[in-house]
Structures are given as C-alpha cells and as structure tokens.
Write a structure and sequence with these properties.
2 copies of one chain form a homodimer.
Chain A: H1 6-13, H2 17-25, E1 33-34, E2 40-41, H3 44-58, H4 63-75, H5 80-121
Antiparallel strand pairs in A: 1-2
The structure holds a DNA duplex (30 and 30 nucleotides).
DNA sequence: ATAATCCTTATAGTTAACTCTAGGTCAAGT
DNA sequence: ACTTGACCTAGAGTTAACTATAAGGATTAT
C-alpha cells in the first residue's frame, strides 16, 4: 500500500510539517503508523481524515473539540450518536457563519458605494447631510 | 448631545469594557472624547464607528489593519482612494470566505447524512464497500 | 563513503486578541 | 462623612495555534 511522508502530506494539504506534527501531538492523528525508526507513514485514508479535520477547522472548531471527535471515531459504533450530533451542530454553526458574513457583506458593499461616490466627488463632504440643524438663538 | 459610558457601549455592542479599552489603546478610537478627569464619553457617531470596526473584524481583518483605516479617516479626503480600495479588497475577501464556507457546508451535510444512515443501521459498517479487493496470492 | 536531505523529539518562542489585577480617582446615594 | 460602584492607567497573564530551534537519526544520490 502506497504511503506518504509528512513532507508530502504537508505539501498536499497546504500545511507545514510543523503544523502536522503539532496536530499529532494534540492527538488528532492517532491512526498514522510509523516505521520501526519512528518516521510517520501516511496512508490515503489518513490524508482523507486530515481533510475532514481541515473541514472542521474551517468551521472554527477548536482543536480540542476536533480531538474529541477523533477519539469518538476510535471508540467505534458506540459513539455514532455523538458524532451525528456533532456534525448537526457544526451545520448550524456554519449556517450562522454564512448568515453573519452575508450581513457583513451588505455593510461592506454599502461602504464601497459610499467611497465610490466620495471619490468621484473628490470629497467625503458629499455625504454630509445639510439638514439645516436649528442653531440655538443667542 | 447625549453621551454614553464605556459600560453602556460595551453592553450595546456585546463587548467587554476590557475589549473597548484595548481597542482604544491600539488606536482604534482616537475620536472618543474625555471628561476633564479622563472618563471616556462616547457619542452616537462613536458607536457607529465601532459598529464599522466590528464589521471589519467580522471579515477577519487584523486590528493593526483596522487601525490604518482609522488613521486614514483622520487624514480626510486625501485617503479616499485608499479607503475605497480597502473596502473593495474586503469585499473580495468576504466573497472568498462565503465560498469556502459553502464548500465546507457541503462536506458537513454529507457527513450528517453519513451518520444518519449509520445511526439507523446501528453500525458504521453499512458504509464499508465490499469491493472485493484482490487479495495477493500467497 | 559521505554529503544532502529527509525524518525524529523536546522544548522554547511568537503572535493576536484579549482578559485580568492592582492601585487609584470620582460621583451619587444614605 | 462614608460607602458603593463605575470609571481610570499600567502592566501582567492567558489562550490558541502555530512556528522555530537544537540535537540527533535515517535515507538517498553520487
């Protein structure tokens, strides 16, 4: 069976070897086998697992929680319910993240427009409402 | 003109007073005025500015870059081009973030389905392909 | 055979963004 | 007058996630 070195995997996943070893130290890669001398041998399935880890990271899941998931995977079928719930929770989180980004996008686009207008006018004053504020009599 | 204390602003924006003072220390709030004794007095316009800062933070913009924007604002019309370009860049970044989250969502949804099926079957083995791998003759 | 280039561990350092503590000031209520 | 609670600064501490260094072992290329 074809295996890959840590350097090859790092290149493939756009990570550094430092990062991969850090993940291993944090318990995210208990499945990776070693040569008798200690060198890690990554299988295709290990790379797939790392892709899932990267996916969970993209949902802003902390590494400690990802570790729980990895531990559950090692536990086998008894943790199926937990793993299912975890992914459902992740789904809700990503939905919320997308929604927040869409709201952010609206503000950003408004600002793009605001500055386009100001730039064309040469001054931001173009946006200053001259709403004739009542000046206090004095 | 109505003003607000740091505590009121913190509550309004769902931040802590520590965070607001930290932002001030980092130069994000040069516009906030003080009483003679040093207490910060936030105006409505200051709160609006903080909402923009929160919006930029939501695009994963580092505080140092947000500071540059605040500095440009103080510079007036001469920085209009830079501010316009900054928001256009932010727009591109948010688009990319949304796209990445949508790809992430596809994977997560697939996993939700995967675990739903496994849970119904009572075992993850339901997904194991029995693709008759050619066993080596020995 | 030997140099280059991998790999290993253990451990220390970095960075961003808070988060808190200590020690003090100030304004309002009893 | 005095206590309470919110404000202030300076500076220290925390956390997550890397990122790098040192010292050495293993593998590959000439």
């Amino acid at each position: 069976m074809k295996t890959y070195s840590i350097g090859e995997v790092a290149k493939e996943l756009n990570l550094t070897v430092y990062t991969l070893r850090y993940y291993d130290k944090e318990g995210l890669m208990p499945f990776v086998e070693r040569t008798p001398s200690g060198t890690r041998l990554f299988k295709e399935s290990d790379i797939s697992a790392l892709r899932i880890i990267e996916c969970l990271k993209a949902t802003a899941m902390p590494i400690k929680e990802i570790k729980s998931f990895i531990d559950w995977c090692s536990d086998g079928d008894s943790s199926l319910q937990q793993r299912y719930e975890m992914f459902m929770e992740r789904k809700a989180i990503v939905e919320a993240q997308i929604e927040e980004l869409q709201k952010t996008m609206e503000v950003i686009e408004h600002k793009c427009f605001y500055y386009k207008v100001a730039l064309d006018a040469g001054t931001e004053d173009i946006h200053k409402k001259d709403k004739n504020e009542i000046s206090l009599p004095n």
